[in-house]
Protein 1
Amino acid sequence: TFKKPRISAVGGGKSNTVIDLRSGEILKGDIMIWSPIGLLQDQYFIKAAAYDARARKFPYPDTLMGNLIEELISHELGHALGIKDGNFGEFAYPFEKVRSVKWLSKMGHTPSIMNYTRQNGLIQLSDSIPFNLNLQKVGPADFHSILWGYADFKNLSDAEELRKLDSIIKLGDKFPWLIYAQGSDKNGPYGDHEVADNDQPVASSRLSLKNLKNIMALLPDIALKDREDNYLLEHLYFRILDQWILEMKHVNSVIGGYFLQYKNGNQPGLVYSPISMEKQIEALNYVLQEAFKTPAWMIKNDITHRFEAKGSITNISSIQNQVLRDLLSKERINRIIEQGMATNGVQHPILSILFSELNNQIWKELNADKISISIYRQELQKSYLSHIMYLHEENMDLIGSSERVQGFHSFPAYAEGIIHNNLEDLRNKIENSIEQSDSLSSGHLKRMKAKLSEILN
C-alpha cells in the first residue's frame, strides 16, 4: 500500500502570443490549460459547499465543471489580450454589495477575471443568491483595461491621444476598483489571493469562517459516502485549513496597510494613505481573538484519524505559526512604525499595542490563579518566542552593514526598544507564574523563561 499524494495545490494555464513589435498588434495567441479537474473542484468546494449542494457531490455535474473551466479560460484569454495577473481593486468593492443580487449581476464579486478570487466565499445559505452569481466573471476592470489598450482614436494627434489615454487611467480616481496594484505596491489588502474582494476584510473573514466551519461539519458525509478510501476526506480537510490561513492573512493585511491611489505629477494628494488606526486596531483584535485561540472546530479526530495516527498538534501549530509569521514580518513592522510617526509629531502607540496585546493573548493563561497550559497553547507560545528570536538575531546581524542603513527589512532602534520592554515584562510575568502552574506547564514555562533570557541578553 502507499499513501496517495494530495491533488496538486497549483494549476492553471498559460497563453503564448506572437506580437508584431512594430505595431504592437497581436498576430496569434494560444491558450494552454493544465489545471487538474480535481483542483477546480476543490476550489469551488471550499468557497461554495456551504450553500450550493452541487459542490457536495463528487465528481461535479458537467454543467458546473463547464462553468469552472470557463472561468479559467477567460482568465487566460485576458493574458492573451495583454492583461496582467491579479490585484485589480481588491480593496475597493463595498462589503455590503458583494451579497447583493443587483450588484453581483452587474459588477460580479470581484472587479476582474484576472484576480485570484475564484468564487464568492461570503454568500450565506440564507441569502438565496442564484448560483451563477457566485462565479467569477469578466468585470469592470477588464473592460477598463481593454478600453485603454484597444480603443481606436481616429484623427487625433499624438498629444490628443495621450490626453485621452490619461483620462481613461484617471477613471480609477472615481472608481477605485479599476486600480491595478503593481508588484511593489501590495502593501495592504491589495495583494491578497483566494479571498473575497471588498473593503472590509474583518467582516469578510467572519462570513468566510462561518462557511468553513459549516463545511468542516459536513465533511465526513461528503467525502466518505460511496468512497473506497479516505483520500478525498484527507485533502479536503487540508484545503479547509489552507483557506483559514488565507482568511487570517487577509485580515493581517490591514495592519500596517495602505490605501493606494496612483497620481501623476499634477495631481494633489498621496499615493499611499495609511488605513485608519481604528481599522488597524479592529483587525489586530480580530486576529488575536480568532487566529491565536485553539480552533476546536479544526481538531477533528473523527476525520484526521482516518488518514493519520498523529498530526493534529502539528497541523494546528503549523497554520497558527504561518499567520503569526505573517503578522510579525519585518516589512509589516516597518510600515507600522512609519505610519505611527506622522500625526502632528505625535507617535501613535500601535506598535506597542501590537506586542502588548500579543503578550496578553498568547500568554493569557498566566493571569489565572491556577495555571494550566494546553499542548496546543504551548506550541503557540514556543512559536511566538521563536519568531521574536529570529527578528532579534537577524537584526543584530545587519548592524554595521549597508542593509542596516538602506534596507527595508532592518529594524529602527524604536522597534527594538518596544520589543525589549515587552519581553522583559513577559519574562517577569512567567517567572512569577511558575509556582502557580501545574506539572504539565511548569517545565514549559521554565523553558520559555530561559529562551527569553537568551533573547534579552
Note: Residues 201-224 form the longest helix (24 residues).
Protein 2
Amino acid sequence: IAPSFEIAEKINTQLGWIGNLKSDGRPILGLDAEELTKIILGAGESCLVIPAHMMTPWFSLFGSRSGFDSLEECFGKYSEFIYAGETGLSADPAMLWRLPDCRRITLISNSDAHSAPHIGREANVFKTELSYEGIAEAIKSGSRERFLFTIEFFPQEGRYYYDGHRRCGVSFSPQETKKRNGLCPVCGRALTVGVLNRVEELADKPEGFRPENAVPYKSLIPLRKIIGEVLGVGPDAKRTEGEYEKLLQSFGSELDILLNVSPSALSEAGFPEIAQSVRRAREGKVRAEPGYDGVYGKARIFPKEEREKSAGQKLLF
C-alpha cells in the first residue's frame, strides 16, 4: 500500500524491470518477498507491505507448499516491517490467533473484492481520520480505539477450508487426511491441503484462544445470499435482486442492514424472515458445508429440514 500515486508509479517502474506487470491482474514476479519488501520500502518509508490471504494453498505466506513457517523465513531482515497480514476467505482471526506470528501482527480483512456485488464481503472498520496516515497508523498499532473490527466471511465458505480433491469430489477434515496419509482415496495422489490443516500444523495455542487487546471481528453472510435462501432461489435471481433493492430503499446500505438495523425494524417493514435470518447470522447460528480445493463452501442459516417444515406449515395454513 502506497501513500501517493507518485510512489506507486516509482514502485511499478522498478517492478517492471523484473517482470511484466500488464500480463495478469496479479502479476507473477521472479523475486523473493524480502527483495520485494526492500524495493517497496525503498520507494517510500510509509508504504505498507501486507501479505494477503496468508494461509491459502499453495504458495501464500503460510501456504502448505510455500516453504515458510514464519514471517522471518519469508521476509528475512525486513520481517520487523511487516505490521499486518490479511486473513483470506478460508480463515478468520480466531483461527489465526493460534499462530505465534499472527498474534504479533494486526489481522486485516480485504479478500474477495473481485466484482462490484462482492466488495465489502470482507472489510475493516476504522474510527480514525480519513487519511493514509490515519489508517496506516491504526493498522500498524492495532489500536482497539482506532481499529474497531474486521468483517469476515464464515471461513467454511472459503474455497480452501478443508483438504480435498475437486476432480474426485473428495473433502476431508485434517483428522481424516492424517488417517489417509494425505492421499486421495480415488486417484491416489496428494490431497490439496487446506487452511484448517495448516493452522493445526503451525498452531501453538488451542482452539478458542484469544489474545488480549486483539482487534475483534464479525462474521457476516451477504444480504443477497440471505434473501436467496429465504426465497428458495439463487443470490443472483431477479426476485432476489428485487427484494434487495427494496431493503436498500428502506434501510440504506447493505452493511448497515447486516450490522446495525434491528430485527424488529426489519419485521415491521415487512421482512420478517429476513429479520430472523439476520439475527441468526449475527449470533453465528449458521450451518456450514466446508469448501475444499477451489470449491466454495456453503453457509445455510436454516437447515434443510427446518426449511421444509416451514414450507409445509405455509401450505397447511
Note: The two ends are 57 Å apart (CA to CA).
Protein 3
Amino acid sequence: MNRIIPLILAVALFMENMDSTVIATSLPAIAADIQTSPIALKLALTSYLVSLAIFIPVSGWMADRFGAKTVFRAAIAVFVAGSIACAFSNSLGAFVVSRFLQGIGATAGLVVPRAIVRDLYTGNEAARLMSLLMLVFSVSPILAPLTGSFISESFGWRGVFWAVTAAALVAVVLLATSLKETRPPEERAGSSFGEALRAYRFLMGNGRFLGLTAIGSFAISSFFVYLSNSSFLLIDHYGLTPRVYSLFFSINAVSFFAMSQLTGRLAERFGLNRVVRYAVSGYAGVMLLLLALTASGFDSLGVLATLLFFGYGFVGLVIPSTSVLAMDDHGEIAGTASALLGTLQLGIGAVAMAVAGLFADGTPLPMVAGIAICAVLSFTLAQFTLGRSREAVEAPAE
C-alpha cells in the first residue's frame, strides 16, 4: 500500500470531521451569545447533517463523473463561505443557514475518501486502509474539542470558525498538490446523471448494501446523539469546565481509534462478517448495561465514562468493516455507492439526534436511551443481514 494515500485521504476526512466536532465545547457560549435555548441551537447541528444527507448523492455522482479533485475544489469554496458566514452570525436563523451551507461544502470530505479506497483496494486491504481513515475519524474528535475549547476561551466562539476556515484552506492546498485521480477519464466518461440515478435505484434495491449501511449508520448515530447532548449534560449537569469536558469527550475517541486499528488484523483471522457480528454484540451489550444502570437511578460520571469507552471501542470495529463490506461489490460505481452510504448514515444520524433532543431534560437518561436504542437496532440488523450462511464467503484465506 502506498503510504502517502492514507495521509491524503485523511486530510479530506479531517476537514469534515473537525468541523462537526470542534464546536462541541462552544455550544453553550453560542446559545448565550445569540440569545437562544440549547434545544433550539440543536437545529444548527441538525441542519448541518441534513445538508450533508441531501448533497452527498450529488457529490458522489460528480466524483464519478468529474473526478475527486474537481469535486473537492468546488466543495471547499462552499465550505469556506459557510464557515465565514457562521463566524458573522448574530441570530439563530443566520447560524442555522450558515451551518447548512457548511454542510454542502463538507460533502467531499465524506464521499472522496471512501470512493478512492474502493477505486484502489478491496477486501482485507481495503479494511486496513479504511481503519487508517478511522484513525483520523478518531483523532479529530480528540484534537478538535481540545482545540475548540482553547480557541473559544482565548478568542471567543467566532474564532473557532475562523480556525476551521484556515484548516480547510490548508487541506485544499495539500489535496490539490498531492492527490492524483484514481478514476481514469475513460471510466468517468460513462458516469452520466442518468446512470447515477440508475445506480442509486440499483443500490436502494440491494438488501445487503442497505443492511450493511444501516448497521454502520445506527452505530455512528449513537455518536451523533452523544455529540449533540454531551456538552450540555457534562458541563451543566456534572459541572465540568469546557476544557475538562473536551478531555472527557476525547476518551471515547481514543477507544474508537485503538479498536479500529485492529480491523484489518481481525478481518484476516476471522473474516469481516464475523468481526461485525461480534462487534455489534459487544456494542449492544455494553450500551444496554449503561441504560439499565441509568434508568435505575444510578447517576455516576465515572460509570458513564467507562461504559461509553468500551461501547465506542466496539463501534470502532463496526464502522470500517461495514463500509468495506457494503462497497466491496460496487467498484464500478464507487463514488455513487460511497455517497449513498454517507447519505443514509447522516440522514439516520440526523433523525436520531433530533429525536433524542426532543426528550432532553438535563439528565443523562434521554441521551443514554438514545445511544442504547441505536445499538440495539444495529445489532438486530446485523442478525438479518449477516447470516451464518455468508460466513464461508467472508472467511479468511488459509
Note: Residues 388-398 have pLDDT under 50 and may be disordered.
Protein 4
Amino acid sequence: MEAIRVQDNMLLNGKISTVFLKFAVPAIVAMLISGMQTMVYGLFVGNILGPNAMASVNISNPFVQLIMGISFIVSVGTQSYMGLNLGNKNIEKAQNVFKTSIIFILIMGESITLLGLIFNEKLAILLGANDVLVKDVSTYIKMIAIFTIPINLMLLFGFSNRIIEKPELYFRGMILSLFTNIVLNYILTAKLNLGIVGTATATGCSFLAAFMVVVWPMLDKKSVINIFVGKFDKSVIYPMLYNGSSEGINSISTATCAYLFNMAFMNIAGEGGVAAFTSINYIAQFGILLMFGISDGICPIVSYNYGSKQYDRVDKILKLAFKICIVAGIFIFVTLFFFGKDLVELFVKGNNDIISLSASGAKVYAFAFFMNGFNIVNSGYFTAIGNARSSVIVAASRGLLFIIIGIVMLPMIFGVSGVWMSVPFAEVCTFFIGFYLTYKSSKSICINI
C-alpha cells in the first residue's frame, strides 16, 4: 500500500517551532473560529430575537454538549491512540482504531438524534426551561439533533486529518463553517424571521459545510488512515474511549456548569440573570477555546513523539505551549476586565440591568484565565501520552468538582458575585493538582518541567 511513511513524518523530525506553526496554529485558529460561531448566533439571537431566545439557546446547551462530548471523546481518543500507534510503527492497529471509531460514532450519533427528536420537550423541562422558554428550548434541541451525525463525523475526520499531516483542512472547514453560519443566520433569522428554527438550522448546516471539507482525505486510499482500510475491533473501543474520556469530561462539565449557572442565576435574577451569564459565556468561551486550540494542536505532536520515545521533543513542545498560554491568558484577562461592558453590549442592547450584571461578572470571571490555559493544556498532554487517569482528574477538577463546591458555597458568602467567583476558584484549585501530576509524570520519563 502506498502510504505516508511514519519515519518521514514531520511530527517526528521537524523543528519544534515549525511543527507548532504547522499543527498548533491551525488548531488554535480553528477553535477561535468555533468561538466566533458561538458569538455569531449570539449576536443574531440576542439582537434580533431578544434575551428570552438567548436564554433558551443557553438552556439548550447541555444537549449540544452531549453531542459535542461524544464527538470529542471519540475524536480526541482516536487521534491520540492512532498517534501513539503510528509513532510506534503499529500501522495496522492505528487503522483498526479509525475504522472502529467511525462505526461507534455512527451508532451513538443515531441514538442521540432519536433522543432529541422524540423527547425534546421533556429534555427542555429537565434542563430548567420555565413556561416562558420551554417552546424555544425544545425547538432548538429538536433542530440540532437532526445534525448530530454530521457534527460527529466532522470532528472525527477533522482531528484525524492532523495525524496524516493535513491539519490545515480542519482550519479551512471551520472558515467555511463560519461563513455558512453568518450567511444562513442572516437569511433565516434576520430576513425570513424563522426564529429559533432559523438559528438552529444555520448552526447545523455550518457543521455540515465543514464536514464536506474534512472528509476528502479519508476517501483517499493512498493515505495511511482512510475509511477503506482497517477493520472493526471491539478490543480498541475501551482504550480509545478511555484515552479520550477527559474530553468527554470537559463537555459534561460544560453542560453541567451551564445547568448549575442557569439554575443559580434563574433563582437569583430570573431570565435576566441567565441572559447576563449567557452573554459573558459567549465571550469567555472564545478565550477558553483558544486554550483548547493550543491543547488540541500539540496533541498529535506529543502522541507521535511519545510513542516513538522522543521525550526531549515532548518536553520542548509542552514548554512552548505553556508559555503561549501565559501570554494568551494575560491578554484575555485584560480584555474581559477592562472591556467586558463594551463586549456585553454587542449581545444585549438597552437592558441596563443585564449589562450591569454582566459587566461586574466579567471582572470576576477574568481571573480564571491566569490558570485555565495551564489546566487545559495539562489535561490534553495527559490524553496525548495515554495517561487518561491524570487527564480525567484535571478535567473533572476544573470543570466539575471545584465548580460544584464553589457554586454551592461562594454565593452564600458573596451573593451573586459568588456565582461568578466559582470559575476562578475552580481553576486555582486545579492548578495545584495539575502541577503535581505534571511534575510526577515528567520525572518518570526524564522531562524537565
Note: The chain has a mean pLDDT of 85.
